[in-house]
Design goal:
With 821 residues, this protein is an alpha+beta fold. It has three domains: 3-424, Chondroitin AC/alginate lyase (Glycosyltransferase); 427-681, Beta-galactosidase, Chain A, domain 5 (Distorted Sandwich); 692-818, no CATH class. It contains 19 helices and 40 strands. The strands form nine sheets. Strands 13, 14, 15, 16, 18, 19, 21, 22, 25 and 26 form a ten-stranded antiparallel β-sheet that branches. Strand 8 (437-441) and strand 9 form a beta hairpin.
C-alpha cells in the first residue's frame, strides 16, 4: 500500500464529544445496555490464533454480526459517563478491552485479513471455519455485511484513542474493502415480493461508515457520494423515479408507502428504510456534522402513512399481513421511532418510542439473566439455519444501542404527544390499495383486512398482539383435502390472493366481500364478508360451496391466534394463562414452551366464547369451537395458542353442496357478561336469499351481498323484548316478529347504524301490526290494526341527542315522531 495513502487515511474524523450529553432517554437505555452487557459477557471467549482477540456468542454466526453488534454495545458501555460496575459485574476497562478484542477478531477473520485466519468452528456450516466479508458471495449475502462494517467502525471510533496502530490499520482495510466494492454499483429496485429498500439501506450504512470515519482518504469523496446515492434510493416511490429528483433511480415502495418482503407487506422491513440508512446519519451526528437530506428524505411520509398508523399499545406496528419473525420486536420498533423522533422532531414518534422502551425494559426485567427476549432463548428456534432466540439477542441489543447513541448525541428530543393527541392522529380508516389492505383504528381496537399476499382478517383488542395474534389465514381458516399434499398451493393453509374482492370504505369503518377458490382445481368456493363497525367490533360471515366431489380431512375457519405469554413484569399483558369461558364451562390454559403434550379442548357448537376478558366472540352456525393450547413449536414467534370457531373434519362430498352460513361477531375488550349479552342480542335474520346475509346486533344492521346484482331484501326475526331498533327505511313489527326490508348493492358488505329505539308498551296486545319508517329526523309509525288503539309508544334518538318522544296511537292511523332541533 502506498505510503502517502496510508498517511492520508490515518486521520480519522474526531467524535464531537462536546455534543454528547445525558438525559432521561440515555439513562433508561443505558440501564438496559448495562444489564445486557453482563449477559453478553457470559458469551465471550478469547481467540488464541492472534494476540488480544476474542469473540461473542460463538464467533461464527452469519456475517460476523454476533461479535460486531456486541462489540459496538461494549464500546458504548465502555464510554458511558455513568457506568455501573455493580450491574455489569466487571470494570469498565474490561468492557472496553473486550470490545477491542472483538474488533481485532473480526478484522483478522475478514476477507482482508491473513488467509489462514478464519472464524472458529460452529454449528453453522456456512460460517464455521470460514472467513466473512462476502468474497465470492452474490450481492445479497455479500452486501449484508454493511451493518457489520458499520458496527465495527462505530465500536472502533468510540474507542479510537485506545486502539493500537495495527488495529486501526486492520479496521481501515475492512472499511476500504466494503466501500470500494459497492461504491460503483447501482442501487437495486423492487417493491413486490422482496423490496430492495433493505439492501439499499444496509449498503449505504457500510459505505457511509468508511466515508464518515475516513473523509481524507483519496476515495473518501467518492464513497460519500455513493453512500448518499444508496441511501436516497432506499425509500422511493414510482413518483420519485419519474421525477428523477436527487439521483433517484429505483422504486422500493408502492405509491401508498407499503412495500413487501418475504412476499407480504412487512412492517419490519419497511422500518428498515428509515433505520438502516439512519445508521450513516448517526455517524454524521456523532461527528457534529449536519445530516444530509438523502439520509432522511421519504422518512416522514412513509412513517406517517404506515408505521405510525399501525403502531399500537406497545409501540410495535401491527403486522397486518402476518409475521414470520417473532412478535416481541419492541427493540427494532423503538429504534425506528427514535430516528423519526430525533431526526425529525416528531412528537408522535416520541410517544411511540416511550411506549416501546417501556416494554423493552419490562421484558428484560422479566428475564433474570439480563437478556432481552427469552430466558431460555437457546431452545426457541426462530428459523432453520442455526437461528434461535439467543441469536436474535445481539440484534435487539444493537437496536437499543442505536437509540441510546441517537439520544446521547441528538438530545432528549421533543415532548411526546399526549395519549389523546396520538389517538386522534392514528384513529380512523386507512386504505392501502397497492398493499392490498385496509385498517380501521379506534381508541380500543385495531381491525384490518388483507386481500393479497396473505388473505386474512384481524380484530385486536386494547392489548393488541399480546391478546390476539395476526395468524396467517386468520378468520379465513385452513383447509386440508384428503389425497392432496399439505402445501400452500393445494391445501390453502395460507391463501395468498382472492379470486375476487370488493371493498367499501366508510368514514368510521369498512366492509369487504371476497371470493376464494380452495383446493386443487377449485374444489371449494369460499365467499366471505368482513365488516368493521364504528365502535371497534367486527363481523365475519362465510358461505362455503363444495363444487366438486372431495374428502376434506380438516376444515377450520374462524381461526384466531391467541397470545399466551408469561413475563413477570407485564401483568395484564403476559400473565402466563388464558381463561376461556363458554356457556356452562370455564377452562384455564397455561402458556409455556416445553415437552408437555399440547391440549385441544372441544366446546361444541356454543353461541359464544370469551378469552380472558380480553375479547369475546359471538358464534353463529358453528359445528364445533376448539381451543388448541400449544406447548411444542417447530418455529418460535411467541407462545401462541389457536382458537378455531368452526372446526370440522372428516367431510365427504359426492357432489356439489352448500354448507350452512357461519358468522362471528368479535367484541374487543368484552367481559364474559358483555359477551353473553351480545350473544342474546345478535342474530342472523332469516331470508330466502342465497347471496345475502343480514345480521342484527346492538346498534347496527349488517349487510353482506355476495351476488353481482343489487338486491331487494326482506328479512324476519323473532322479536326479543319490547325494544325494537329502528334503521333508515321501513320495518314492520307484527306481534312477535320483526320484518325488515331494504336494498343492498351488488358485492357489498357494510352496515347501517340504528337511528332510533322504539319501546312498545306492555298494554299492547299480541296481535298488532306497526309499519315504522325512518326518514331523516322523523319517524312515521302506522298502526295497521283497527283493533289496537289508545297505546302510548316511545321513540328515543340513539344518537348524541338522546331525545325521547311519546305519542298515543289509534287504529289505522299514522303518528309522527319529530326530532328536528
Amino acid at each position: 500500500m502506498p505510503n502517502e495513502e496510508t498517511a492520508s487515511r490515518a486521520a480519522w474524523t474526531p467524535i464531537d464529544w462536546g455534543r454528547a450529553g445525558e438525559n432521561e432517554y440515555t439513562r433508561r437505555l443505558s440501564r438496559v445496555l448495562l444489564k445486557w452487557t453482563r449477559y453478553a459477557n457470559e458469551q465471550y471467549a478469547d481467540w488464541p490464533d492472534r494476540e488480544n482477540c476474542g469473540h461473542f456468542f460463538g464467533g461464527s454466526y452469519w456475517y460476523g454480526i454476533e461479535s460486531a453488534y456486541t462489540a459496538a454495545v461494549f464500546a458504548a458501555v465502555g464510554t458511558m459517563p455513568e457506568y455501573d460496575e455493580a450491574v455489569t459485574g466487571m470494570p469498565q476497562q474490561e468492557v472496553r478491552s473486550k470490545a477491542i478484542r472483538a474488533i481485532r477478531y473480526l478484522s483478522f477473520t475478514h476477507d482482508t485479513g491473513p488467509e489462514e485466519c478464519v472464524r472458529v468452528e460452529g454449528p453453522n456450516p456456512h460460517c464455521s471455519r470460514k472467513k466473512w466479508g462476502g468474497r465470492g458471495d452474490p450481492f445479497f449475502r455479500a452486501s449484508q455485511t454493511g451493518t457489520v462494517v458499520h458496527a465495527m467502525a462505530c465500536a472502533a471510533w468510540l474507542l479510537h484513542d485506545e486502539l493500537d496502530e495495527e488495529t486501526k490499520r486492520l479496521m481501515e482495510s475492512v472499511l476500504e474493502y466494503y466501500a470500494d466494492r459497492y461504491s460503483a454499483m447501482k442501487p437495486g429496485t423492487g417493491v413486490y415480493f422482496d423490496t430492495q429498500c433493505e439492501e439499499n439501506g444496509w449498503t449505504s450504512s457500510g459505505i457511509g461508515a468508511a466515508a464518515a470515519l475516513l473523509p481524507n482518504h483519496p476515495r473518501g469523496g467518492e464513497w460519500r457520494q455513493a453512500a448518499l446515492r444508496w441511501a436516497r434510493n432506499s425509500v422511493t416511490t414510482p413518483g420519485d423515479n419519474v421525477k428523477r429528483t436527487g439521483g433517484v433511480s429505483t422504486v422500493t415502495f408502492h405509491p401508498d408507502y407499503t412495500t413487501e418482503n418475504h412476499a407480504f407487506v412487512h412492517p419490519s422491513y419497511m422500518m428498515a428504510g428509515i433505520s438502516l440508512r439512519g445508521l450513516y446519519a448517526l455517524l454524521e451526528m456523532m461527528a457534529g456534522s449536519p445530516v444530509p437530506e438523502q439520509l432522511t428524505v421519504g422518512n416522514v411520509p412513509m412513517y406517517e402513512r404506515t408505521i405510525k398508523l399501525w403502531s399500537y399499545t406497545d409501540g410495535i406496528p401491527v403486522p397486518i399481513q402476518g409475521q414470520d419473525w417473532w412478535y416481541n420486536l419492541h427493540h427494532a420498533s423503538m429504534m425506528c421511532h427514535a430516528f423519526i423522533h430525533v431526526l425529525h422532531g416528531n412528537p408522535d414518534a416520541a410517544a411511540l418510542e416511550r411506549s416501546a422502551l417501556e416494554f423493552v425494559e419490562k421484558l428484560q426485567i422479566s428475564n433474570t439473566r439480563g437478556c432481552l427476549l427469552e430466558q431460555n432463548g437457546e431452545a426457541c428456534i426462530v428459523t432453520e439455519g442455526h437461528q434461535t432466540a439467543k441469536e436474535m439477542e445481539f440484534g435487539c441489543a444493537h437496536s437499543v444501542l442505536i437509540a441510546y447513541l441517537l439520544h446521547r448525541f441528538g438530545g432528549a428530543g421533543t415532548e411526546p404527544s399526549g395519549e389523546r393527541d396520538l389517538s386522534e392522529a392514528v384513529n380512523g380508516v386507512h386504505y392501502y390499495p397497492y398493499g392490498s389492505s385496509i385498517v380501521h383504528r379506534t381508541d380500543v381496537s385495531f381491525t384490518a383486512f388483507s386481500w393479497r399476499n396473505h388473505v386474512m382478517a384481524i380484530t385486536l383488542p386494547r392489548n393488541g398482539v399480546w391478546s390476539v395474534t395476526p395468524a396467517y389465514s386468520s378468520y379465513i381458516g385452513e383447509v386440508e383435502f384428503d389425497g392432496e399434499q399439505p402445501d400452500v398451493a393445494y391445501n390453502e393453509t395460507t391463501p395468498v390472493e382472492c379470486d375476487e374482492q370488493h371493498l367499501h370504505r366508510f368514514s368510521d369503518g369498512f366492509g369487504a366481500v371476497a371470493e376464494l377458490q380452495r383446493g386443487k382445481g377449485g374444489k371449494l368456493l369460499q365467499r366471505i364478508g368482513f365488516v368493521s363497525l364504528p365502535d371497534g367490533r367486527s363481523f365475519y360471515a362465510e358461505r362455503i360451496r363444495i363444487q366438486r366431489p372431495c374428502t376434506i380431512k380438516r376444515l377450520s375457519t374462524g381461526l384466531i391466534g391467541i397470545r399466551n405469554e408469561r413475563y413477570s413484569a407485564l401483568p395484564g399483558y403476559a400473565d402466563g394463562s388464558k381463561t376461556v369461558t363458554v356457556p356452562g364451562s370455564t377452562k384455564q390454559f397455561e402458556g409455556y414452551y416445553g415437552q408437555d403434550p399440547d391440549i385441544v379442548e372441544s366446546f361444541g357448537p356454543v353461541p359464544y366464547i370469551n378469552v380472558n376478558g380480553e375479547i369475546g366472540y359471538v358464534v353463529i352456525g358453528s359445528d364445533n369451537v376448539t381451543y388448541w393450547n400449544r406447548h411444542q413449536y417447530a418455529k418460535w414467534k411467541g407462545v401462541e395458542d389457536v382458537l378455531t370457531l368452526n372446526a370440522r373434519s372428516g367431510l365427504l362430498f359426492g357432489g356439489p353442496a352448500e354448507l350452512p352460513v357461519f358468522a362471528v361477531l368479535a367484541l374487543p375488550n368484552a367481559s364474559v357478561e358483555l359477551t353473553r349479552e351480545s350473544a342474546n342480542a345478535t342474530r342472523l335474520l332469516s331470508a330466502r336469499m342465497d347471496d345475502c346475509i343480514v345480521a342484527e346486533t346492538e346498534g347496527y344492521l349488517i349487510l353482506v351481498n355476495f351476488g353481482g346484482r343489487r338486491t331487494e331484501y326482506q328479512v324476519t326475526a323473532v322479536r326479543a323484548g319490547r325494544t325494537v331498533q329502528l334503521f333508515d327505511g321501513t320495518q314492520h313489527v307484527n306481534g312477535g316478529q320483526i320484518v325488515r326490508t331494504g336494498t343492498v348493492e351488488a358485492s357489498y358488505a357494510g352496515y347501517a347504524a340504528s337511528r332510533f329505539r322504539l319501546e312498545l308498551p306492555e298494554s299492547l296486545p299480541d296481535l298488532f301490526h306497526l309499519t315504522v319508517t325512518v326518514s331523516g329526523a322523523r319517524v312515521y309509525v302506522t298502526n295497521e290494526a283497527r283493533s289496537v288503539s289508545n297505546c302510548t309508544l316511545t321513540v328515543t334518538d340513539t344518537g348524541s341527542s338522546g331525545l325521547r318522544r311519546e305519542v298515543s296511537i289509534e287504529g289505522l292511523c299514522t303518528s309522527v315522531f319529530t326530532f328536528d332541533r
